Amino acid sequence: MSLPPFVVRLIGIGKYDKFPHLRPEGDTNAKDLSDFLKGDPNFNHDIDMASATEPVTRDKIFEMFMELRKSVDRSKATLVFFSGIGGSLGSGGPSIICPADIGVNDKSKGITDQELVSQFDSISRFRGNNITFLMDCPSSQFKWGNPNSFVVISPRTATSENPKAFTQSIIEVLSREKDSLAFLTVQSFADKVQTFMSNGIEVDCRGLNVDRLLFNPRKGKAHHAFIRGRAETDGTLTLFAGSAHGVTEDSTFGIYHHHIAHNQSPIVHLQTERVQDSTTSKLRLPSSDFKVPPVFYAVETRCPLEPVDIFKPVDINLHQYRSWNEGEEGKTNITLERLSNSDTDKVKIFWNGFADPGRIKPGPENCLFLPADELDKVIRHAARFKYIVGSLANTVSPPLFKVKFQEISTASGQPTGDNLLKGDLVELDIQGGEERMYCLAIRNLAKFAIWPFVFRCDPREFKIEPLYTPTQPLAPESKLIIGGGDGDSLMFEQWKSDPGPALTYVKIFATKTRTSFSFLTQDRSSIENKLREVGEEAKASSNNSDGEHRHAAVQPATETEKRKSDTKEDWQTRQITVQRTYGKGKPRVRTLSMETLPADLLKRFRSFGQKASAMASPS
């Protein structure tokens, strides 16, 4: 499969003058990769390798970086490969890659991780954020943060037993994936490289844009619905989602070769064999003559649902998919109402809240309008919304984290005032014309580091969207501020015609193990519906008289109770209900964004995922 042109720069160091006993074979690694790329007609590229006849000094490496700053086609991918010695300069010191002349004189120093970040930031101004840094030295001590200008792929620990292991794994993947190179993302490429690494060495993949295509970055990215999976050497199939993600033994997944929302169909459907722990599950093996790829991607097509209780007029029809129950007026999650005085067949959907006290009476416009023929799909989205936001829970004692919800000072950009969170409820009385900003403060109470994930959940359209994704763990007794000086604030947009109360839910997950929760996202797009086979339930229901509904699953009541009583201590969830009431006065309809921030605050309010404050002080 032919790929668009891309740029490759290779830096390989085979010996160090000051340290002759070090023989990392970086020069032969760079040559091996160069020879492979030049010899394969699939790769149409501009390739340059640091001279093998002269020492690759610090100055020469910076000269190569300088050459990359020339203006070029910004759609081209740029790959920079380094193979040599790298590591940390003592406890708490910076991490470096070592040029050939390191230690020869006072000026011959290593290149620190922050110098590399600065170089790639500078190069990206000319080439775009299309840079992939393949670093063949241990990366566990490198502090990349979550860079936007480049992504880095590297082994976390040393490959001293086989200095060529990382390079050989790269070549092996590129050779075996010839038919799907156009669909390799940075993350999927790293996943596949890891499968060929010896001794279980983990391959790290860091950066804000790891979901972009590796060789054609402007042509797409991974879809959030996919979950990574791996075929193990013992013949089992591991899915990297577990009890913390809501996976049960009743879940079924479509299995795909890659995680690009391209015109691909699932190669097989597999059911969960067992939920192994909070972040992994095992899938049932397919028939013996079917081989699952070493790295695969899964989409939930039969997932646990929590049936929504609905009150509806008799003239509104819904198919019975097991995703809803009919209830009494005033006691249901959802109220349906046919739009009156309209020539179109439209329905109003009012979200009334979960079965918690203080049920909210919906305002006149705090609802979703949609054609009646779309109602069945939306009700299934509502059932998934209810399960993930309201029913997926794990309470541990003592808790893993503590949460505060505070207003942000527009002057300082920092939290101010009392904690507005009372129990699991935040009540905001917003007067007309006010523009309030808020933040979450999460403090780690556990004796181990945790990975906190935060979603904003909109019941008006049953959307679940990431609000904060961690790039590093939160240490014990440390505090994370989401909003304020190092992130977007939690603004709540006023409905244009609705003076009544409105709801938003904030769902927090914390895990001991690093994982991804991105597949919990729900945006109700046509692509997502197709991947999750939303809308197929009616057909499955009518075609399966034996009650085995392939795509319309409901978690059995006994299993639900079992999940609610789950007290595993390595993960926890918290749901916060944010109820806002707008007082008298003409409301100013405005959502704070990077474009609308005053200049003096623009620097302080950065996008989520790039930086977050992780202060060591207690809350």
UniProtKB/TrEMBL annotation:
Residues 532-587 are annotated as: Disordered. Residues 559-572 have a biased composition (Basic and acidic residues). This is Uncharacterized protein.
